[in-house]
Design goal:
46% of the residues are buried. The chain has 2 domains: 243 residues, Zn peptidases (Aminopeptidase, 3-Layer(aba) Sandwich); 88 residues, Elongation Factor Tu (Ef-tu), domain 3. The chain is 24% helix and 24% strand. The strands form 2 sheets. Strands 1, 2, 3, 10, 11, 12, 13, 14, 15, 16 and 17 form an 11-stranded mixed sheet that branches. A 6-stranded antiparallel β-barrel has the order 4-5-8-7-6-9. With 362 residues, it is an alpha+beta fold.
């Protein structure tokens, strides 16, 4: 049986196989093709006019049902989730066969040393290397490493051998297998393959609004695909589906976490890129309260999402962001709670069923 909310709302099953395939797909910013192909297969029968633009954003529409009465058409709601993940890019092949790399998106070098990776279009195995701690001077041990000090070792002994296997510009992704841990899921790239999986789940139903579904590219390097997509669609409003960072692990200062794992979807009020539309925030909160769906308000600290570009498009787009809490974001392995995913899907389905022009009035 599917779990239910306190008010008896059926949360339905999760498509964990789709999330696994999305999580394990390799797709650093600018190289999202493998992810896009998975999503085309997943949503092809549920969306009209499925197509990609010149940047690689994937679009599809789902018309309002029942159709709006004569007069004003139903609101067009842009639902956005990004396909790309943080990773590395090969910048140089050394004479010793080791690969110099640079970050694609926001990466913390402290979590990278010793991590297995996959390099280039063929997924060549490698490991991220750093000077061994027992060969480091005391002063070096006390300083966090920098990405420029790291090398990817693909197990060859010369630059000539490496040149036959790798090109400058090749992407490097973490070699992390998806795992079901019971109440939680472990994997890479939940930011934002988790949001992509949620968007796919929303397409199982009809709504009284028209959905403009967009799987965007290059979010991690400047919200670039979303800017193009929002300008192209000119929607009446937008909801961004994300996985957001938690800081709920033990720490010295007992302050409010940005969001907590297992506490329900997080509704953004403000981040560094966006002040969320108050009408949409109120609609989401009222929906959750009415149906007994647990949720949290994302503490207004840092971060940014595709909403930062969407809301500035053309004459302005009312925009909200709903995030699933994700522990160890932008790391080789992250944790996502199944309950948060279920409650996020339930909240968004209900909010879309209830959304009307009245909710967007000033």
């Amino acid at each position: 049986m599917s779990p239910k909310t306190d008010n008896g709302l059926d949360l339905g099953p999760l498509d964990l196989d789709l999330l696994r395939r999305l999580s394990e797909a390799r797709g650093v910013s600018g190289d999202e093709g493998r992810v896009r192909r998975i999503l085309v297969d997943a949503v092809g029968g549920r969306l009209e006019r499925l197509h990609a633009d010149g940047m690689g954003n994937l679009y599809g529409s789902r018309a309002a049902k029942p159709a709006a009465a004569a007069g004003r058409p139903a609101p067009r709601v842009m639902l956005a989730a990004h396909m790309d993940e943080v990773g590395l890019m090969v910048t140089q092949v050394g004479r010793d066969g080791l690969l110099a790399v640079d970050a694609v998106g926001g990466l913390d070098a402290r979590v990278l040393a010793g991590q297995p990776v996959l390099v280039g279009p063929e997924g060549l195995p490698g490991v991220i290397g750093l000077k061994p701690v027992h060969l480091s001077a005391p002063g070096e041990r006390e300083q966090p490493p920098k990405i420029k000090d790291l090398r990817v070792d693909i197990g060859v002994d010369s630059g000539e051998a490496a040149d036959r296997l790798v090109n400058v510009g090749d992407g490097v992704t973490f070699a992390t297998d998806f795992q079901d841990l019971g109440p939680t899921l472990l994997g890479k790239a939940f930011d934002d393959r988790g949001g992509c999986a949620v968007l796919c789940a929303l397409l199982d139903q009809d709504y009284p609004v028209t959905l403009e579904a967009v799987f965007t590219v290059q979010e991690e390097v400047g919200l670039r695909g979303a800017q193009v997509a929002a300008h192209r669609l000119a929607p009446d409003c937008a909801i961004v589906l994300e996985c957001g960072t938690t800081d709920d692990t033990p720490k010295e200062r007992d302050d409010t976490p940005v969001m907590r794992l297992g506490a329900g979807p997080a509704i953004t009020v403000m981040d560094r890129s966006l002040i969320a539309d108050r009408r949409l925030v109120a609609h989401l909160v009222a929906t959750a309260d009415d149906l007994g769906i647990p949720y949290q308000i994302r503490a207004p600290k840092g971060g940014g999402t595709d909403g930062g570009r969407i809301h500035l498009s053309r004459a302005g787009v009312p925009t909200a962001v709903v995030s699933m809490p994700c522990r160890y974001l932008h790391a080789p392995a992250s944790l996502l709670a199944k309950s948060d995913m279920r409650h996020t899907i339930a909240l968004l389905r209900a909010a879309l069923q209830r959304l009307s022009w009245k909710d967007l009035e000033r």
